[in-house]
Amino acid sequence: MNVQGHDTPSHIQKILMEGYRRMSPQQKLQRVSEMTRGVQQLALARIRKQYGALPERELRLRLAALWLDRETMMRVFGWDPHVEGY
């Protein structure tokens, strides 16, 4: 099973898979949560670089617009990413 990219040797993939199999569901969930936070931090850094200093609400809206569709953004937050840019 090739769950990593083509640049990961197969013996390393096996070690990773064995490690994941030994993890408890809670440990796996913790890893996913940590990775999600990491991706969000990278996205926030890009937003800050692109738009500069923003009020916290706008920063969070721009982050949410990366994950949510336009209709949801407008219905839930009253914020149109096509008008505001994202």
List the main descriptive attributes of the protein structure presented here.
86 residues; mainly alpha; elongated
Average predicted confidence as pLDDT: 91
Shape: elongated
- The number of domains is 1
| Helix/strand structural class | mainly alpha
> How is the main sheet built?
none
Present the secondary structure layout.
Elements: H1 10-22, H2 25-51, H3 56-65, H4 70-77, H5 81-84
Summarize this entry quickly.
With about 90 residues, the protein is mainly alpha-helical.
Describe this structure in words.
Helix 2 (25-51) crosses helix 3 (56-65). This protein has five helices and no strands. The chain has one domain. Helix content is 72%, strand content 0%. The model has no long low-confidence stretch (mean pLDDT 91). The longest helix has 27 residues, at 25-51. With 86 residues, it is mainly α. The chain has helices spanning 10-22, 25-51, 56-65, 70-77, 81-84.
